[in-house]
Amino acid sequence: MVAASALTLVCAVAAGVAASAAAAEFTRGPSPAELHAASRREVAERWRSWPAGRVFPATLLYSAEQGGVERASRIGISPRTDCAEAVDPEAVAALRAAGCLGVLRATYIDALRGVLVTVGVVALPDERAAARAKAVFPESGDPVPGVRPLAFHGTVADRFSPSVRQAGSVRQSGPYVVLTAAGQVDGRPARALAERRTSIFAFAPEISESVLAGLSTPRLPDCAAREWAC
């Protein structure tokens, strides 16, 4: 009888400890590792969870050639996200191999309304895949292979075709690669120009970096908010 009572007491204590541990697990706050993981997940989902106007703001600041700050204005955003459609054929296979999830595109015009820039956001599964994808695109400023220009009929970007591209850029941070393709509003093909005026396109990488920073900069998780999974 004494042994049975002792065993019952031990079992009760064990059950109490287990219940206490379970309660502590359910009521404790997220650990630093869990917060970091939640932050990474939130960053990786921004390309599809954010409204298009948040990914591509209506205006983006850049440094003017003459000094000071000017604004590039958004002309339009593509509703399509297909990876193969958004980049040159030479880059499609490499993007697929890297696990391309989608490409967002928007076209901007500079403050003087003479230069068009298509900004393309390539979403990849993680930072390593994004680094692989970035290596496909030239860092020399050549626009090919790169993002395909996004034209909008009935606007100043009506003639923004692949042949008009004169400059390109590539940037990467986190699971994102951001590309630009820049050309002149008048629709002149790059091959028709005697020389490339690279200085007029220098603002394109700057506005792409603004888009990239917005997408890839982590923020402190708010586990009470619906957008977070802590």
Automatic annotation (TrEMBL):
Keywords: Signal. Residues 1-23 form the signal peptide. This is Uncharacterized protein. It comes from Nonomuraea pusilla.
